[in-house]
Each structure stands twice: as structure tokens, then as C-alpha cells.
Amino acid sequence: MKKTISLSLLAVGFLAALAFSQSQDRIVISIIGGEKKKIALPDFRGAGGATPLVDTFNQTVFDDIQRSGLFDMASKSFYPLNPPQQESDLRPTPAPPPARRGEPPAAPNCGGRCLSDWSGAPVSAGYLGFGYAAEQGGQLVVFGHLYNVAVPDIAGAKLFRKLYNAPLTADGARKLGHDYAADILAQFGAPSLAGSKIYFISTRSGSKEIWSMDFDGSNQQQITSFRSITTFPAISPDGRRLAFTTYAKGQPRIMVYSTETKRFIPFLNPEAPMNATPSFTPDGQHILFSSSISGFAQIYIADLDGRNLRRLSNSRAIEVEAKVNPKTGTDMVFVSGRGGLQQIYRMNMDGADPMRLTTGEGEASNPAWHPDGKAIAFAWTRGFAPGNWNIFLMDVASRETVQLTHGQGRNENPGWGPDGRHLVFSSNRAGGSQIFTMLADGTEVKQLTTQGQNEKPVWTK
Amino acid sequence: MKQRHIAGTMLALSFFLFAAGCKKKQPVQPPPPPPEVKAAPKVEKGPAAAVSSFTAEPSTIVRGESSTLRWSVTNSTEVTIDNGIGVVAGSGSRQVFPSATTTYRMTAKGDGGDAIATVTVTVNTPPPPPPPAPKQTASLSDRLSKEVQDVFFDYDKSEVREDGRATLQRNADALKAILNDFPSAVISLEGHCDERGSAEYNIGLGDRRAAGVKEFLTQMGVPADRLKTVSYGKEKPFCTDSNEACWQKNRRAHFVGVQ
Fold first, then answer.
1. First to last CA, chain B
2. Selection from A305, A310, A307 nearest residue A294 by Cα
3. Which of A449, B122, B188, B228 is most buried, by the most CB atoms less than 10 A from its CB?
4. How far is residue B45's CA from residue A367's CA, in Å, rounded to a whole number?
């Protein structure tokens, strides 16, 4: 009898574990997609003035395609020696030579000029990108192609052929690499990250200031120069406004900045010792923030200029980091100490239906809505000592979670890329705090910053 | 021949002149002796006035200081000193405050004759004033660091602990005295946290710590309008090691003076 119970408990435990791992897969698959396609990307060659730039172009394309997480990259060592550079290089697949007795039929081989060279073993790719770079009229010109090599007919296999132009510089080569990669990803419905920006806090100038960089870590630029403490940046949905918290006037205050005019936009801060952790509503028309008007940090909403202030949360606890659901616009997640150590809660915009989302274990912070409004990324110390944060995903409806980082330093402030497939976050795994990106399944981790301490990244299109 | 004659004449002339000069050089007469007052033999008119002393002590002063004139006169019927002092007794003293070097002239009248004496008080310009006392800011922060102690908290707590209450009671008395001595000063109560909670939550936690301390001090009679709070969360740690000793140092309320 006892045995039966323990056995059935074991079975329940096993089933639960199975369901748990399935739910983990389900969340990740729903975010980054299922089976990966295999792509071959033979290096483009450059002619004339394009020659010294083509390596930069090739590396950019490879990185973007690999980081998308949509593809398996076919191993370059298997590539045929003579890949096509233009359409006219392609030859129809010849009929297989007659098989000799006792041997398997030999695969046709045109040294790379036939699509079957790429679809067959050992490359075994589903897609082939090829082309070349040249100099024309002082400009860098690239011809890029993408073929579905599973289709035997050359004309039918062609997905696109496109001409790209940019200045004859390394920046131009990177831009064309991002553009070509974006066109490849667009064929599979994946929005490109090209042109997207990351705002973050850096100490490299001597004080915490806001900086910006391109999504791949290039082009790092200082935005603010308060020589104070400036932190908690938030970006409006259209990418045109930054809100943040600064000590430039003594006590922590909200400020708003236009990324278009490079000017500060007046924001009326309420009289309170603390106004901090701003975020924009999905319509871009309001700012949520935390203010200690009542004596406790509580969630408030105001117009973009700080007027029409309204209190949204009502507790005698510390509540910060409110983020409105980007799909519904009617509910929000936030961080609260109302039940003890800081945890993530949700509630309606009017404060109704509050509910704790995290289990109560450890401490939880930094919720960030996935663009679909169904999942959040956040930081949690569950399973670790206080202060040892890891990045998790949660399906908000089921409250199932997936852990994406596993104790390599402190990992905090996850923010979604505009493609909804990548996350930016900070980690001290490499020493001081630095900014990293990763695919939302925890793979394809790439470090973007090295100078000073860097934290609080937010990613915008 | 003619030349020798001229030379002989010149010689004779100079000889004559020399002889004449010698002749004028008589012994110089000594000046006449001063009139002997006592010897003035007008007994029936009474004795003449005599000044036995007239001094200024000190005789050299810095502007703004005083000097004392002292005098003693005999046989006078009336003694006057100029420079606005007027008639004085035959002997006495008077404090004077000359703003520039002044010579006092004393006239003593007597039946048998007058006597005059003078004394000079030299007045020097005072040296430039010493530099003003150092501003009180340093002194305010000195006094805060000497007399007021930080208050420490438990992890994720903003309630003042038992040890913190004792500290705050002492702080309240010190702060009242300090605010009294620095009537324009305001005390900034800083709330700080250790590195473990999230930076966002810690801004709220530091705010609560500072607010709790302010409430306690206000109840102890420290004027609320002289206290302001600012939360630094974990943005301004005192200590950057990752161990409990360091974390405890960072979980504090700290007192800073603002003039």
C-alpha cells in the first residue's frame, strides 16, 4: 500500500517534471519559433575598392543571421570551392551519371555552381545566400541573392536578388550587411534588428549618464551630461522620447528628453522626496512612475508633461517599475514589497484585481513585456542567494516560467528587442557590469560594451 | 715786469682780506639765560604758575584707542587744555580719543605769571582687519560628523532598530543644538541600501528609511521644516565589498548639512 502511494507520487512528480519541461519549451517556442532552417552563406568576394571592406560585410551578415536564431548555419568547411557570385553562374543540375554496379549513384557535382551542390550532403542546406561586392562611382555596391535550394528549378528557387548601395567605408559595409541580412530574415517573417538602438547607463564619463548604441554595440554615444546620477531610462513606443530618473537637482526626479530634437521636454514632478522609475504607456501618451507623495513609493500616471497626475496603486508598501501591457493597454505588471520581499505583481489600470505573479520565492524585479503582451522577461533570485539575479521568462496567463541564465554573475534588466526574439540585459559575468544581448532561449549571447560600468539597457526600433 | 706787479698787488689784497676776516671772528655770545620764574620778584602779585608734569600715556596709540593725559600744575589760578578739553583742575587726568596725531597745549595761569606745556599723542592708522572667520559650512559638517551618528537597518527593512532608537535620541538633541547654531541650515537625511535588492526597489527602500528617520526626529522635537529626505538607493555605497559587514554599512541613514 505504502509502495503504491510512493510510486504514484513518483509518477506524479515525473509527470509534473515532464509538463514543466514541456511548458518551458512551449514558452520559448512561442517566442522564438520552432525548428530552425539550415542556410549556407558563402563569403562574398569584393572587386576593386570593395575588396578591403568585404570581410566586414560578410561578418555582419553572418552575425545577424546567426543571432536571429532562425537558422542553423551550414558548416563552412563543407562548402564547395566555387560558389556562385551572380545568377549567370548558376547551372541546372545535370542528370546523375549512370550508377556503376555495386556503388551508390554518385551525386551530381558542379563545384558549387549547381543548387544541388548546396542542398545535397554534406552541406545539406535549405537556403543559399550569395553575391559579390564592387566599387561603382565611388560607392560600395553589393548584389545579394537568396535561393531556396530545395527547389530544383533555378528560376523557381530564387527568392530575391537585390542591389545595395552605401558609402565606400567600413560603416557602409556594415550597413549593407545589416540590410542584406534583414532582407533574408524578412523572407521568413522575422523583423530585422537593423537600425534598432539600445539606450543604457554608463559610468565611463565619470558619472552615471545615458548613452546610446546600435543594436550590435557599434556607435556608442553619450546622451546626457548631468555629472550627477542619472539612471532608469525608458523609451517611448515610437522611440522618440526618453524618460529617466536623475539626481541633477538633488532629489531623484523624472526628466523627459526628445531623441529627435535632442532637447529636454518639461515634466512637472510632484512634490515628493522621490519620483523615479518612469515608463511610457503603449499609446505613448502617458508616463507611469513611482512617487513617494503618500510616504511610500507608489505607482502614479501623468500626461507627458507631468500634469493630470493620478494614483494607481494603493498600499503601504514600496511599489516601483510599473509597465503597461503593450497589447491590452488595460493591465500592468509592477514590483511590490506588499507581501514581504520584492515580487512581481499584476493589476488593472484602475488598481483592481492585484495578483502576485512570481511565487514569493527569492526576490523578483525588472518586468518587461514581450510585444505580444502574453509573456514577460524579468530578473529573479529564485534558487540563489539574495543579489544573485537571473533572467527568466514567464507566460503571464499560466505563470509558467523558464530560466534563461544560470548563475553566471548577476543578470538584470532584461529588455526585448523590436523583433520580440532577442533580449538585452546587463551582467557582471565578465567582471564589471556590461550589456549583453541573447536570443530569448538563452543562446547567442553577445557582449556589447566594455568601457566603464554599463547597466539598465532598453532597446527600441 | 708788469706781471710781477699785478701778482704783488693780488697778494697784498688777499692778505688784507684775510686780515679783515680774522679781525671779525669774535667769540659767540651764549644765548641769554631763561627768565628765572622764581626770580621774578613780584611777590605782591603772588607766585607765577608752574607745570610740574604734563604727560600722555601712552603717547602713541592706534586709531580708536585712548590715551590718558596727566598733569600737575602749581600756583595756577586756572588751567586749560585746548582741543576741546577746556578748563580742568590743577592736577588730574583725562582720557582722550584723538583720531589723528594731536598736540595738546596746556595753559596754566598764575598771579605771578603763566606757564605753558605741550604733549603730543601720536595716532597710527590701524592695520587692515584680520580675514573673516572661516565660513560655518565646514563647521556644520564637522559638528554633524562629530555629534550625529548614522543609523543602520536590517535587510529590506525601513523600521528603526532598537540600537537605532538610542542613536536617534542622541542625534535629535545634537541636531536641535546644531540647527539652533546654524539658523539657515537644513539637514538632508540620506537613505541608503546594500547592493542586493534591485536598484529600482532600493530607491523606494532608501526613501522609506530616510522618511522613517525624519518621522522619529520630528517626534523628538526636531523641526520638520529643517529636515529633508533623499534616497540614494544603492547608487552611493559607502563600501563596495560583497559581504555582510559591508552590506550592513550600506544599509544606513546618513546625515548631511545643507546651508
1. 110
2. A310
3. A449
4. 120
Per-residue pLDDT of chain A (461 residues; tens, 9 = 90+): 444 444 444 444 444 454 555 666 677 767 766 678 999 999 999 988 999 999 999 999 999 999 888 899 998 889 999 999 999 999 888 776 666 666 655 566 888 999 999 999 899 999 999 999 999 999 999 999 999 999 988 999 999 999 999 999 999 999 999 999 999 999 988 888 888 999 999 999 999 999 999 999 999 999 999 999 999 999 999 999 999 999 999 999 999 999 999 999 999 999 999 999 999 999 999 999 999 999 999 999 999 999 999 999 999 999 999 999 999 999 999 999 999 999 999 999 989 999 999 999 999 999 999 999 999 999 999 999 999 999 999 999 999 999 999 988 899 999 999 989 999 999 999 889 999 999 999 998 999 999 999 999 999 98
At A241, the amino acid letter reads R
Separation in Å, CA A242 to CA A209, A237, A287? 13, 10, 11
d(CA B174, CA B146): 10
3-state secondary structure of A423: strand
Nearest to B203 among A320, A341, A412 (CB): A320
Cβ distance A342 to B156 less than 8 Å, yes or no, reads yes
Q: Helix, strand, coil % (nearest 5) of chain B? A: 35, 30, 35
Extents of the domains making up chain A: 37-92+109-186, 197-460
A232: chain B residues, CB-CB within 8 Å: 199-200
C-alpha cell at B221: 522635537
CB contact under 8 A, A274 and B197: no
ipTM of this complex: 0.85
Nearest Cα neighbor of A388 from A408, A372, A371 is A408
- Residue B170 DSSP SS3: helix
Locate B32 and state its grid cell: 641769554
Give the Cα separation of A460 and A240 in Å (integer). Answer: 9
A235 contacts: CB under 8 Å, gap ≥ 6:
A199, A241, A242, A280, A458, A459, A460
Read off φ and ψ for residue B52, nearest 5 degrees: -90, -25
Domains observed in chain B: 43-124 (2.60.40.10), 136-258 (3.30.1330.60)
Q: Which residues partner with A300 through β-bridges?
A: A289, A311
Distance in angstroms (rounded) separating the CA atoms of residues B44 and B85: 32
Distance (Å) of CA B153 to CA A151, A294, B222? 70, 22, 21
Contacts of A297 in chain B (CB under 8 A): 203-204, 207-208
Q: Confirm or reject CATH 3.40.50.1100 for domain A37-92+109-186, answering yes or no.
A: no
One DSSP character per residue, A140-158 reads: EEEEEEEEETTSSSHHHHE
| Interface mutation vs chain A, best among B155, B198, B235, most A CBs within 10 Å | B198
Alpha-carbon distance of B161 to B40, in angstroms, equals 102
Alpha-carbon distance A380 to A363, whole Å?
Answer: 6
CB distance from A201 to chain B under 8 Å? no
B162-181 and B199-219 helices cross at what angle (nearest 10)?
70
For chain A, what's the residue count?
461
Tell me how far apart the alpha carbons of residues A83 and A129 are, in angstroms, rounded to a whole number: 10
CB-based contact A321:A367 (threshold 8 Å): yes
